[in-house]
Structure formats: C-alpha cells, structure tokens
Amino acid sequence: MTLSRKYLAVLTAVAIGIGGYFYLRSSPTPAEAAKEGGESAETVPVSIAPVMRKSVPVTLPAIGTVVPLSSVAVKSRVDGQIFEQDFKEGQDVHKGDLLFTIDPRPFDSAVRQAEANLARDKAQLEGAKLDLTRYSELAKSGFAAQQKYEESKTAVDSLDGTVKADEAAIETARLNQAYTAIRSPIDGRTGSVLIHPGNLVKANDTISLVVINQLHPINVSFAVPEQYLPEITRRMAEQPLEVQARIADDAEPPMTGQLSFVNNAVDTATGTIMLKAMFPNDDERLVPGAFVRVKLLLKTLDNALVVPTAAIQNGQKGSYVYVVGSDQAVEERSVSGLTETGDETVVATGLKDGENVVTDGQLRLRPGIKVIAKPSAQSSDATPSDSKPSETSPSASQPDSKS
Fold this sequence. Notes:
By secondary structure, the chain is α+β, with helices and mostly antiparallel strands. The protein is built from six helices and 22 strands. The strands form four sheets. Strands 1, 16, 17, 18, 21 and 22 form a six-stranded mixed beta sheet that branches.
C-alpha cells in the first residue's frame, strides 16, 4: 500500500511539470506581445542618448611624471667650514643669488701670501736684470768673463718664470677666495638644506648642500606604445602637438603644454617610446616627482558622428548598438570604423545624425522590444553648471544643450 502511494506521488509531480512546461511554451514572449500590441507587453527602462555630429579630438592617454627642466645639486668647490646660510628652505632664488658663505679667512691669507711672493720675486727679477746689464757691458769691454754674463742671463730668465708662476698662484688663490661665496647657478626653488652652517665641507663632496629645481617652465615625461611613433613624428613635422596634463583629484582645468622631445630609441623591455612635454607652469601646480594623467592630442576629427562609448556592444558578428525607433522599439544595428576617445566613440558607418541609441540596460533587450527612457540621474532643479563636460572633447557639453 505504501508503494502505491509513492508511485502516485511521482506520477502527480511528473504531470505538474509537463503541464507547466506546455503552459510556458504557449505564453507569448515580451517581443511577441509587443508585436501583437497587447496591453501586457513589457517595456524595458533604459538610458538613451542621441547620435551627434561634432568635432572630436583624438587623444593618446598616458601616465606621466613631472620632471624639472633643470635641477642642480649645489656643492662646495673648496674645503672649509660653512660660515653663513643666506636663504630659507623652499625659497625661490635667482641666478647669482648668494646661498652659502664658506669661512673666507684662510683664503684671504692665501691671497696675501701669494701677493707677497710675487712682490719678492719681482724685486729679485729687477736685481737680476741690473746684473745682466752690468755684465753685458763688462763682457763687451773684456773686463768680465763671458760665463758671468751667461749666468746673469739665466738668473733673469729663471726669475721671470717664477714671477709668472706667482701671478698664476694669485689668480688661483683669488678664485678659491671667490668660491667661498656659493651662489645659485639657475633660477629655481631650493629644497631642504642637507648641510647646515658650522659643518666642514670638502670640495665636490658626494653630499650636496642643497638641490635647486627649476619650476617654470617644467617638463612632464611619459611613455606611449611604439606603434604610435610614426604618426607622432608625422604630426610633429606639421605643427606642434598639444599635450594636456591633469593632477589626480584636481578640480581645476587641465594644464596645456607642447610636445618638446621624442627619445631616440624605443625601450625594448616595454615596447614604448619616451616623450617629454613642456608646460609654462606659471601657477606652479606641477611639482617635480608628481604623477599626472597625460593626453597627447594627435588630431581632430571634424564633423564626426559620435555616440557614448557605453552604447557600443560586441557580439559574434562584430560591434553593434541598439537604435530606438519612432515607435520606441529597439533595432540591433551593426556599426564599424570605431575610434574610441574616452567616454565617446566616433562611428564611421551604421548610424545617422539625430538617431537615439541605448547606453544602459542592453542586457534585457532584443530586437523589437519597446523601451522607455529612465529618469535623468541629475535632479530636476540642477543648474547647467552641475553638468561635467567630457575630458576628451572641448565641445562635450553640447549634448546637454540639445537634449
């Protein structure tokens, strides 16, 4: 008896499953219901954006590092004790400004000693010249040996060389005396003082006194894949290439500079080529060592068809978008000739100006399904200044004025 009840329960479950299957098979799909115009047709909420025609800059993004145009590690050129520090850490200095003073007293003494040696040797030279003149007359009259005349001439020549050596020693002593005043070789900003007054320093020591970096103009170094090198070289020959740099989390507009340097070799380890762009940096927003987001402007596509990049879908047959028709039903449309520029993509073929495409909610779509636009993410009372333009195009705010 128990076995019969088990068979009965199994048969009942099978019957319910078969009935549910045929019920679902007989129910129309949302697309079929939409075609039949039934009241129960599904309407999928999606985000919609228009296809627009405008000028789009094609940029090459990269991560760059700010490097000073010139950086000098200031060192002493003589041995001595640091006597004074004539600037403050982080101060802007100009070429020729006094930075440090080495105790000048030993060098002053060296100059005076060299001058005294010169005076002594000059006096000896004058005496040797008088002896030479005297022995020259005596030798001609036969009252002095020729050997005495020659010895006098040798003494004059020797002392003449000694005087010239003394003059060179004075120049060296005065030069060392001048080196006791350490001055800035460039315009720039000083860093931390590494050796303070009171310490002894050696000439050209491994540790510098301070490092000075030139802040304006300033360079940004970045690398791009080597396949872009031919186009970059070609564009540079036509006109200077614009480069934009933006500091992370900086609300200010990006800074604009020009590409100034292309390295003469490709890095075989990374397959990239190193570039440098020069920025005026008058506001000193760029600081050496900082990382920035860089965009190199390669060209501008005029009168191009543009859609949001989020609208582009990839399938087995290639790229496509969902186009919203006048009856609010979507159509799957193949597109080609795509050029992505960040948040926007330029489409060469497949779309027309003024058509609407789906940018969000594509997973629930099939051709023929009707859609309805989602409410805007911004509040209804938002002002035009609340909208943020695209970073890849100066005219990216145009869609807001047309929508």
